[in-house]
Amino acid sequence: MSKAAQGKANHEWEGLLQNRRWYAMRRKVASMHPADVAEQMAYFGPQEEGLFLRLAGPRKGEVFAYLKPKQQQRILRNAVPEQLDALMSQMPPDDRTRLLGKLPKAVAHALLGRLPASEMKHGLALLSYPENSAGRYMTPNFAAISPHLTAAEALAEIRRTGRGKETLNVIYLVDEEGRLVEDLKLGSLVLAAPETKVTDIPDPGMVGLLDTTPVEEVMRAFEKYDRVALPVMDASRRMLGILTIDDIVDVAEAKNTSDIQRMGAVEALDLPYADYGFWAMVRKRGGWLAVLFLGEMLTATAMGHYEKEIAHAVVLALFVPLIISTGGNSGSQATSLIIRALALQELKLHDWFRVLRREVASGLALGGALGAIGFTRIILWQRMGLGNYGEHYFLVALTVWVSLAGVVTFGTLSGSMLPFVLRRFGFDPATSSAPFVATLVDVTGLIIYFQVASVILRGALL
Amino acid sequence: MSKAAQGKANHEWEGLLQNRRWYAMRRKVASMHPADVAEQMAYFGPQEEGLFLRLAGPRKGEVFAYLKPKQQQRILRNAVPEQLDALMSQMPPDDRTRLLGKLPKAVAHALLGRLPASEMKHGLALLSYPENSAGRYMTPNFAAISPHLTAAEALAEIRRTGRGKETLNVIYLVDEEGRLVEDLKLGSLVLAAPETKVTDIPDPGMVGLLDTTPVEEVMRAFEKYDRVALPVMDASRRMLGILTIDDIVDVAEAKNTSDIQRMGAVEALDLPYADYGFWAMVRKRGGWLAVLFLGEMLTATAMGHYEKEIAHAVVLALFVPLIISTGGNSGSQATSLIIRALALQELKLHDWFRVLRREVASGLALGGALGAIGFTRIILWQRMGLGNYGEHYFLVALTVWVSLAGVVTFGTLSGSMLPFVLRRFGFDPATSSAPFVATLVDVTGLIIYFQVASVILRGALL
């Protein structure tokens, strides 16, 4: 909804609420998408939550599923037992797992205990999957039919049993042992001649996932095969549930957010920015900053080793920020490129040597070019009287050039190899490596710079 | 497909190709998902491309649509006219727009000219939308029925006209003037009693998009409403086409990639890492590095202003890298958090002042804490004989503490406000602002540090 439309809607609702026009409100809620009802509830805040849920009637659980986690938890805390039961049993099973997974274990189990026995069993099974697996996000609420039916029989069967399924877009042919035989788009089924056997209806080859498949691979599968739902099976092909693309889009968006946050050296946030308390936010950010700060302290140690050189040639100190930042920039460039290429599987682990050769060459080219700019700047400033770098300014400029080539090469090299090393040892080459690379390159960059200086300036300044 | 499975598949195909078992190959291709056929084609490279496309027969266009842009363009260059016609007309219209959009304008129009007149008109219309709008990504190939039918009549109509539509998951009720009345899930239609009027079938409220809606808003709409397809209309509600979620997932993934790349100070890449030539990649990276390098040169100018202070108190130079990097880290933290929160619409433009107050307070808290660590480190090292910061080491430590508080506060402040400023003036507060913030904070950090030093150390060291 656009901002103007939202403003108008808020205004309308305020009027209805003030005049207590229950019937009009109920009719209005019935015509709205549950996501919009949830948004409207969020606007009016805690006082009107109960009212909106009552107005939603049988769609209460759906609306509840669209609320933000914080609001859901508050409602659960304040609900009387009957309300709790209604919300829990009306919520789609996959959304329920997501919510319960965020609650303390004891609370989650207590809530599950309020469900009918069979749903409770399902709920416990879903919760027992690791957070990052396909099993955790699936819903057992799919439309299955026997593979022995004709198209007409299948449609009749779907009419009989299909109500309340998570989706009817894809129908699953499941044999007597519960094994998945084939999936079939409802559209293909509708188009098929009534007497066709369902197994003979042409459909692109089936794609199934194991319950243990990691979420990243699930995302790749959705992208690759352009499906709206994918079946989840156990190791013996028994069908357990389905994953729908809307859940995966939410998961992908959350992953995107945490990638960008980790790249910016923040622990990934679980809540929106505005929902964090001040101190909670400071803690989330302080941890990382402190770790990087401790790493950066090594720069003071490194500089300490060259204190005598700096005292002899103060001019050297002037270029320290330029050199280490440029090294850091080239390092985070390389890391972000490689991490992303690994995540999208454009690069595999065994490509490391090809990448290494290429990045060293890129580093030399980039560092050489930047160094030339730096060199020219120093010579020009000196000649034009804009700066005074002493009688040996030419050697100083040369030091900067050679150092930049070295530092940028080291930056691209370590930036591109760290993700491979992390992946090789089974870690997630997460975007959080970018700030680490910058710190590593800062320290090493100083050493490179002063070593180059001690060679080039020996006998002149040093 | 897992790596092992892929290896096995490659091996099998090699056998079939060597023994020229055309019939077995054709049958195998028919059983495969087009995405997998495309992947197999990519494995065998240019020599076998023609063969695979012939084997795909009538699914040629579908397989072609799944190839990578580079491969598509090579095939188009080498195709004879009849092949071109077949590929162009069999490709789904939205994928076709995507491909043509990447080609030079003259080539795109020449290719469109080979299509039947009506499709050519559609193709030109799609291409004329701006790259970032819903219109650019829609397909005009949707299933529409009259709103006056009953459920049974609607199903019969879909059977008659539904073949070859982009999706049948959602059916659109369109009136005589071409205006969108309602959308309806095929599943709901199948479940409805045969004599129900289609407009009476319950379905969550309709969500429509304008053709001019920006892609980011389209993504939000898909996330919010959990739909697999959304209708696109012009300003007078005439229905133009649909957007399917699989296309939007691809677009979102591409956006995610370019966000992360821009955050790492790289111009967003159009191709996978491995597809770039060496010099093309160096150019892509060099541009940004050079811009940031020119900005960083200001650090040398700033340091030049304090050359005398450094000469008097070399100890000051030792902490320069620590201070500016910490400022940079806090700045990129703040930018990445705010950019993401703005993109997800968790924050709106008018929240800027609330954010400002909060970030200044966070900056003081974080900078104060980090400064305390730095202070302690200097005092401890001095006492333990690990470093020698001179007789005024206490004042030096105090300078570091106060400077860090100032630099980190300035970092969070400028990092959090820059995205608001960019958004305010109509720019995309892209993740590329992160490296800029770091550069800005480097220069300002130096000034803050030396100013603090000149106050605290006056009369002692300076």
Helices and strands in order:
Two copies of one chain form a homodimer.
Chain A: H1 3-18, H2 22-31, H3 34-44, H4 49-56, H5 60-66, H6 69-78, H7 81-90, H8 93-102, H9 105-112, H10 117-127, H11 134-137, E1 144-145, H12 151-161, E2 170-174, E3 180-185, H13 186-191, E4 209-210, H14 215-225, E5 229-233, E6 239-244, H15 245-263, H16 278-305, H17 307-312, H18 315-318, H19 320-343, H20 352-383, H21 393-424, H22 433-456
Polypeptide structure, described:
2 copies of one chain form a homodimer. Chain A is mainly alpha-helical and 462 residues long. Chain A is 65% helix and 6% strand. The first copy, chain A, contains 22 helices and 6 strands. Chain A has helices at residues 3-18, 22-31, 34-44, 49-56, 60-66, 69-78, 81-90, 93-102, 105-112, 117-127, 134-137, 151-161, 186-191, 215-225, 245-263, 278-305, 307-312, 315-318, 320-343, 352-383, 393-424, 433-456; strands at residues 144-145, 170-174, 180-185, 209-210, 229-233, 239-244. In chain A, a hairpin with a 5-residue loop joins strand 5 (229-233) and strand 6. In chain A, helix 5 (60-66) packs across helix 7 (81-90) and helix 14 (215-225) packs across helix 15 (245-263). The longest helix of chain A has 32 residues, at 352-383. The first copy, chain A, is elongated. The first copy, chain A, starts with a helix and ends in a 6-residue tail after the last helix. Chains A and B meet through helix 3, helix 12, helix 13, helix 14 and helix 15 of A and helix 3, helix 12, helix 13, helix 14 and helix 15 of B.
